[in-house]
Amino acid sequence: MRSWLYGLLLVVCISGKGELALAQSNSYQFVRYSAEKGLSHNQVNCFLKDRKGFVWIGTAEGLNRFDGYSFKIFKHNPADTTTLSDHHILDLFEDPDGYIWIHTRKGYNIYDPSTERMDKEANKAARRLGLPDADFNRVLKNSDGNYWIHHNRLGLLKYMPSGKQLIKINYNPPTQKRARQKEKARTVISDFNEDKNGNLWIVYNDGFLARLGSKNYKPTFESSLLQEKQTGISDNHRVFVDQDGEPWVYIIKAVRGAFYFDLESNELVPVNKAAPDFRLNNNIVSAIISGPDGKIWIGTDHGGINMVDKKKKAVSVLQHNPNDPKTISQNSILALYKDQTGMIWAGTFKTGFCNYHKNIFKFSLIRNLPSSPGSLPFNDVNVFAEDKKGNIWIGANGGGLIYYDRKNNSFRQYRNIPGNPNSLSNDVVVSLLLDKSDILWIGTYFGGLNSFDGKTFRRYLHNPADSTSLIDDRVWEIFEDSERRLWIGTLGDGLDLFDRQKNTFRHFRPFAPNSISSDYIAAMIEDKDGDIWIGTAYGIDVLKRNAGRFVHFGHDANNPGSLSSDNVISLEEDALGNIWVGTAQGLNLYDKKRNRFISYDLKDGLPDNSILTIAVDSKQDLWLGTSKGLVHFRIGKRNGTLPEKFDIRTYNEVDGLQGRSFNENAAIRLRSGELIFGGANGFSIFSPEKWQDEPVNSDVVLTDFQIFNKSIKPDEKLNGKVVLEKSISVTDEIRLEYSQNVFTIEFAALNFLHWDKNHYLYTLQGFNDQWFEADNNTRKVTYTNLDPGNYVFKVRIKEGNAVSKERILKIRIDPPFWKTPLAYILYVLTMIGALAVARWVLLERERLNFKIEQERREALQLHELDLMKIKFFTNVSHEFRTPLTLMLTPLESLLNSIHADSGVRSQLSMIHRNARRLLNLVTQLLDFKKLEVEETEFRPERGDIIHFIREIAHTFSYLSERKHIDFTCITDEDSRFALFDQEKLSRIMYNLLSNAFKFTPEHGKVSVKIRIINVENAEQLEVIVADSGIGIPKEAQEKVFDRFFQHTLPDHMVNQGSGIGLAITKEFVKLHGGTIQVESEEGKGSTFTMYLPLHAAPSGHIEAEPVQKIDVREELTNAEKPDTENNRNKPVLLLAEDNDEFREYLREVLQKDYQIYEAPNGRIGLAIILDIIPDLIVSDVMMPEMDGMQLCRRVKTDNRISHIPILLLTARAEDEQQLQGYETGADAYVIKPFRLDILQAQIRNLIRLREQFQKQFQKHIRIEPSEITVLSLDEQFISKAVKVVEEHIGDSEFTVEQLSSEMAMSRMYLYKKLLSLTGKTPVEFIRIIRLRRAAALLEKSNFTVSEIAYQVGFNNPKYFARQFKEEYKVLPTEFRKKEAVGE
Known about the structure:
The chain is of the alpha+beta class. Strands 62, 64, 65, 67, 68 and 69 form a 6-stranded mixed β-sheet that branches. A 5-stranded antiparallel β-sheet has the order 1-34-33-32-31. It has a 5-stranded mixed β-sheet with strand order 71-73-74-76-75. The protein is elongated, with a radius of gyration of 65 Å. Its EC number is 2.7.13.3.
């Protein structure tokens, strides 16, 4: 009794014969569409698939055009006459011209696909078919493309579009004759249909049935069997002809079932709920069609779809299952329709429609259905095993062990029973093996190993106390090899070999000698050679049968022929001996010949690199379970046994599978060749031999065209123009304006099988010739800002290697008007006109330019002539300066040497005054030249401007006395310091006062008034020079400041001016930032008023000390003293002057005090300088061969003579000339003519400065020679000499010759240069540096006197002491004591 109870608890059996309804879920799977997906109404009355491939669905609330993705809805709109006349659709058909006829409650509407408009003129449209009107109730298109029409007045007609021929069929059934005889209601055709041989079957409203031949339209069969049933007179009789050519008649909206005419036995077979053979579940039949596999599909109201198998005389039912979304939408079927592809469309009363095709869901799914007790008990399956009967053992992931009886479609479940050791040890089953003794071995997760003989479970568990027990309770793999050895792979402790005789386990630990390399065993197979392949988390270990040793294969990043990953998940061998390895990084194939692996991954088309399971079908193609779908790895061509060409297809839940991700180990190939793949939501069984991919036979159509996101309808105007004359679906070319260059094209492939697997490729030639893949969800392509031009849009679909026909749309974007050919013609004409005008303008401009150029050249010539004149006068003026110097200098000497009361002195003074006046005119001419070439610079200096002007005015006191002119100078203030250019202000005052005195007669008046005024909060100096002279005419007053202007003078006066004095005055006033003006009255005198802004000195400015004046008399007195010294002691002076008289004069004047050497030019002068090394050089600037500037530059850059001072003489008084002279190294600059006493004083000062410089060097040497900061060439020379001596200071043999060699000059030049700079000979220079260093050592070191003597280069200490005493007046020892006491 207890054993029976245990058995009852052990086996939980859910068994029983599978119901027919259950089977439909696996074999017939539908896709549902309803109002939730965009359908206009859930009551679907009829279907039609047009020649383009669109499916039209007539509902109780509008017409729908379906492209597989979305619905385009047409409804009745009272305000729009181009819409449907009624929204309730009864029937649909397509005429030969492609127009869609929509049968509504208010008659026919005709839809024009090209204009997308509804035409309500049905009679007019009927005339295209040769009919007088649209009074017909049934239209049928046969397989030949001809149309059968039943006209209510004309009867049965046949329309042949090829010849547009309408044939009337004259057939009167016998019942019609009897009806006329009995004067009963006339029988009419209710429905007709055609069989596969072209025969026409006609059913009348009273049930009479007839068949007309396809050739002569004569009756070949007539039957009144149904008529005799007295089903009544009804226009709802319908006839269907099956594949055997036998008719089925039913009456819609009646509870009569259907009737099948058995032509062979001439028997009317009832098909209803009470029928003995063909028993329906409902008698309200709404539609009958031919289904797949020759079955008859009968749509019923509230009974679903009854499928009749004529041969088996059996009926199965397809009904709605609320728990299964792949069943029909509803059991109330209103319409059934089968299109050209074999797809069946079923319209329901309240839930839309559904469609079925054998390839919509390629896989049947076996899963748990809560509402079906006989379904799979548990969805999540891990592993499969097949028994000898072909039934399947299933290991569930928490559902225990399940036995699937395929024949009876039943399941039996075995689960763990707590407390019962004879039950399954754990409900998580991860591995299964049915060994050769039909013992089922079950590996569990933390439940160890189980064996099941069909009655009892036996457990093998890990026992820590028993080393021969199972090593780990997580048994992931079980494998029996050809020697019937049982291998157990665990999840975390390696591999076990089970001895079934002794019930012991031999352990193979990772990294043990001759063992595996990982403790995780993922897969095991045995190849044809008997070698056992073990997949692990660390590659593959192969146990060689012959050698009995393990060989390891792993991943090597540096070896492309190694495994793609060490993480091995699955293993399989095909019939050709290829070993396939699934890893976490792709599929691998082992090439035995080359002992390497070939890998396949994402780049080869795999949806994911993680290969969870591998199964090989009978064609030796692979089926791979991945985390992103089931992959069919179809090999098209092989090179030997290795794949050369292959194709990859991926399937997922859309194809009927349990999902996209599959479980590890959940795959098996059955002996029948079928494959099983499972996952978390059930499993699928399929036969690859029967596998057939649906070819790509649907073309792409364009479904919408948008401009700026607005859909464009046919004949709709945009910017006043029609864009689409026809529907975009039939349009091949579009022309757009330039402003319409942002558009969107929507497309769809009318493939209702797997729309979500369509891969759309598109391109726009003319923009980008590359093909791109479109988003399958939106199927839209938008182009923005396209340039005007011609484009070709192409789109196609691709599935695998198959590609559909391209849909082509030509698009032309017109350019704007300004880019049209007409515009370009206008542009060309405009350009030509513009060029003509431009040519005329250019010619005129050239003429004008030529004229201007001529005038410019003439002006340039005049300007160049003026410049030549000015240059001539300037050069002449420069030449005047030398003779003027020869005149003025001796005159000044004579005047200083003659007594004031001498008559000769007055004559000499007159000569001196006129020479000075001539010099002033020369200077004025040079100032004018500066103004002409804009070389005048404003050089302000701080000074007492009132005192300065007053001093200049006082210089004219002598002239006022001589001409008896009353001259006054009045100032408001005695003193005022400001910034002004003293030279230019003196010229201003000189010109104004000289003109005043010149044009004022004797006993006249000249006055100077100076005052400070305030103008706009700024102080200005007002200087007024007034005279009582002849005055200036009013018309000439505006020109007095113009250059070279001279007005007419009275006859008794002679104009001695040049006309440039006042012009220079005005320019100098402007340089000061001031203004000058004149007021004059002819005969009464003139007044010149000058305003100068007073510029204060900058903050912190310190007034410069006044220049020390030279006492000329004292200097002359000293110069006249007789030279008592020897001529050899006089300083040596070189005179370089090309004017012989001037050079002779200077020699006579200077030879009393200096040794004079002469040179007529710079070249000879340089040679003399190098020869005699003079103390001073006096040179003229302008000389032949080598001028004074070049001579100065040569001297100052030659180390041998760079110490010699140079004084330059020149007649050019320009500031730039002086600056150039100073930049070349000149020490002084004297302008001709000059005062002799000033020249002599300059020469003495330069000689004195040279002596002071010499003393300064000596002082530096005494202090610390090595600390001199050098700047000039002479200083650099001395510094280098000191450095050379210091470098050899300890060398007693260091001589003057060595020093001159180090200094790169001869001994003579070294002697002269050192003597000139330091006053010391080279020997003295070396000795004094040695002594200075010795003194420093005596002060700061503890060396003895002898040691110091040797260190500073003296080889005799006594001689050193004597020389030291001569220099410092004490002996070295006394010097040290003296310094020590001082400290």
